[in-house]
Amino acid sequence: MKWQKVLGGVLALGVLAALLVFARALRHSEGYFHYPRVAPQKPEDFAQAQDVRVFTSDALELRGWYVPSRNRAAVVLAHGLSQTRADLLAEARILRDAGYGVLLFDLRAHGESQGETSTWGDKERLDVRAALDFVRARPDVDPERVALVGFSIGSAAVAEVAAKDARVRAVVLLSPFNTLWLAAAYDFRRFGVVSQSGALVPFWRRGIALDEVRTIDAVEHIRPRPLLIVMGSEESGQPLADALFAKVREYAQTWRIQGAGHGNFSATEPQEYPRRLRGFLDAALLPPPAPEEAGASEAAAP
Fold this sequence. Notes:
Layout: H1 2-30, E1 50-55, E2 61-67, E3 74-78, H2 89-97, E4 101-105, H3 124-136, E5 146-151, H4 153-164, E6 170-174, H5 180-185, H6 192-205, H7 215-222, E7 227-232, H8 238-248, E8 253-257, H9 265-268, H10 272-285, H11 291-300
Parallel strand pairs: 3-4, 3-5, 5-6, 6-7, 7-8
Antiparallel strand pairs: 1-2, 2-4
């Protein structure tokens, strides 16, 4: 019977090790839902931006800044996890200086907005829809010339909303994830189902719809509208980026910025990033120049 005791001891150790792996992954993943709530500070060059409130269909108040449009087009920007509207000021400056109306707002449970917890792009779909409604109702904006820009979890919400709202004229996804399930579990794949299940518990406990937020499927419903996807070469999950880029190769613009991590692309490419972002949105949202204007531009070219 000695071998049975040995086998039992080995099994007990295996179960204990699995429980420890499970608990460690759960604890680490739970930490994603606990982050400082920092009020964004309006910079001096945005002093003229309007302080606005946006109300979601589930009765949350979201706070933001709005810069009126000078060209009848506008862009809604949605930030990432543990960030605020201020984290997309680099993009907002590029677009504001080009004449676009710009709405920067805090997603639920971030910054000055209401909400108890982030849902990683699930309930944030309601936030993006409310922001779209706000911008489309502005007298300075043509509601048929509105685009969405989202970063990380903001990109997940943006992709899902744009997939179902054909009036969204163009979409920019910055550091998107393929599916919410993979975003939650990918970095815990080392110990397979044990560690990944532990990582998913905090999401299940909050009722987050892991199976509904699928950027890799949503992009198919955005086509043939203009779509730009930007990622950094140093972000985790490069094989997932490969899969997403391959999926959209025939109909979207993609750019993997060498040396860039998760966001902050303007710091890595301070000239090319603004040029590409503005060029993409100009082509999508602005009317083409009149024939006489185009001819004059060609004549003036060296």
